[in-house]
Amino acid sequence: MQTEANSPIPRLIHQTWKTRDVPPGLQALQRSWTGRNPGFAYRFWTDDDIGRFMAEEHPALLPVFHGYADPIARIDLARYLILRRFGGVYADLDFECLRPIDGLLEGRSFIVGLEPEEHGRLAKAAERGLPRILCPSFLASVPGHPFWDHLLSRLVEARHCGDVLDATGPFLLTRAHADYAGARYEDGPAAVTVLPPELLYPVTKDECWSGRLFDPVFWEQATRDAYAVHYWEGTWFRGAAERGAGPAAELPRQVAAVVTDGRPDGERPAGGTADGLPPISCLMVTRGRSGLLTFAIEGFARQTYPNRELVIVCDSPALPQDDPLERAIRDAGCPNIRLIRVETGSLPGSLTLGELRNIAVDQAAGRYVCQWDDDDLYDPCRLEMQQRVLAAAGAQACLLGRWMIWWPAENRLAVSCERDWEGSLLCEKAAMPRYPALRHGEDTPVVEQLRRSARVVRMDLPRLYTYVVHGGNTFAASHFEAHWQAATARFDGGRCRAVLEEMGKRLPVEGYRRAVPAPAPSPAPAPSPAPADAAARQDSVLVLTPVKDAVAHLPRYLELLGRLDHDPSRLSLGFLEGDSRDGTHDWLAARLPELRQRYRRVTLLRHDHGFRPEGPRWAPAIQRRRREVLARARNRLLSGALGDEDWVLWLDADLVDYPPDLPARLIAAGRDIVVPHCVLPDGRTFDLNSFRLEGETEDPRHLADGIFQPPRGAGRRYLGDFPGEEAVPLDGVGGTALLVRADLHREGLCFPPYSHRGYIETEGLAAMARDMDVTAWGLPGLRIVHADH
To answer: Which residues form the Glycosyltransferase 2-like domain (predicted)?
Structure first.
């Protein structure tokens, strides 16, 4: 077969299943691949499709194919042959795509990922002496890549192995790659790129199966750099009862519970499950007019706990036609909902919230009562999990020690501080104290009394309850701002969206967001601590990009700009094109009308420097001249585009990914000059111009052509060398994404096109800034991805 290893990996995604009836639990994961990669073709293969493919394309291998006792071995063989024939990307159906995968594919001819390091310590891997394992659940290649023939020869040799892992699966793949890479192909178009686990396999089997992914903080940290996540469903070796049951299948191992026992000595502990699942009455007090109560009622209807009822106490009379509360109850289609209209004999609102809650408790038929507020979101297994922990602890009441707090209008999400969250109360009705006649804060005395009189268990599973700050809450905004500052984890900007998307698999996040009324404008808001994305909206930013032969990169460049959280009316753009041969200037000029409709200002300049070197751009012999030209281009662009903006953000045209809140996070660092950590798609540090010296000065032996050009790592530490540090002072900066306070440029800070203390261009800017008593900083934890070319 003729190899096409010099061609790009085709934008084609392959997936397989037994039939076209994909299980419901896998359909959302399947859609993630097409949804996040709209430019890719998609081909779905059933077992029948695979059988025909084998008969038509590989009749000689049919004895091997049909000789496997385990059906998954046939699928393994088929996926290898499909990619060998057509190229593209293969992904198991229990894989979720988290971001566009173009950045992974660019410049590569074959890609495979490493499983988590922990898998190498599992029994089967340890017995075989395989400390690292290559996983075939995600594969990408050009058609006819030479590794496929090498793998097929090993596969035929191993066809009689009793364990599918050795015959066709990851152990075979790992051994074949070791032979291949060690013998011949370490570089060039026939190479195999092995990606680190954090890009494709950021979580282990145990973390999936134990329920740990239900922890939003763990999920966000684990998937922060991932392009995809594999959930290790194991449809070929795990039974249906073990798969897809969700976090309620068993109590997640990470749940922490603290018990407070205030019962009098000798009092009988609450039983829990001796008579089966005890009935639970969820108690909702409402005025019945808010559109948000629909979500609370639907949240009750979706609960996995079967023996339940919802008691709704409303102190407002029904509307004569199409009452919203009664309509929401009908739409929920749940028979175990009771509506109680309270006749107050006067205007609605004459009874306090505490008095209405007592009416709900009195009306409850269940052995347990559960507070169910009308404007919050509840995970489907809230009742099941809380009742299970309550029963296991022999307790009479259960509370959450943390819950989620969401500000939809501000794109903020937090995991609260640790305390007894009264709104999450599940309590034995017989032990329930009376609510005081208060209009708010009525549940705090109830919980305090329970601590003194009952056995109370506090559990830590914050995703069970999402408290929503929508502007119509009982407490004022300052109350919730204090909770934001005290939160144990905070997510804003792009990370907020990522966590909400994960939560949205179980909660109606988008529907709720659309239903939240827009906040009323405030003429003179009181000053308060602001999240990073709010700070970014207040500052104007000028994004500047010198471009040359950039047509291939500009669509992605503009796509990433369009995803920014930053208000477009506070963003200006500036481009300077020079020395291009691919029509870059005309391409940009054609899009100016559209760009100028979206952004505050857009400037397009043109200046040729006559610099078209042969050979690689990183060759030491041309560095002085290349960077001199780039410095002049930056300075010319700056002088022609800078207006009244607060910040200047220099961005490379060939970045392939960065978070939508990039400007917000750079500004929030509070530095005059700051850069993120620029990496290649495989995670290696790309930007070697952002460095900190190991000593006080450079080694003079590394001075070449008037500028310091040391070998990688000689006397310098890069941002990848500072894991876990929030901000690092730097001696040099790169320009892949460089934020500079605009006033510094106005005061004369520029990119020297000459050797300034041995540095030029962006490194020279950092040296010049030091002369102005300004330090440049790097953020190791804020990653952006550069094309690998």
So the answer is: 281-401
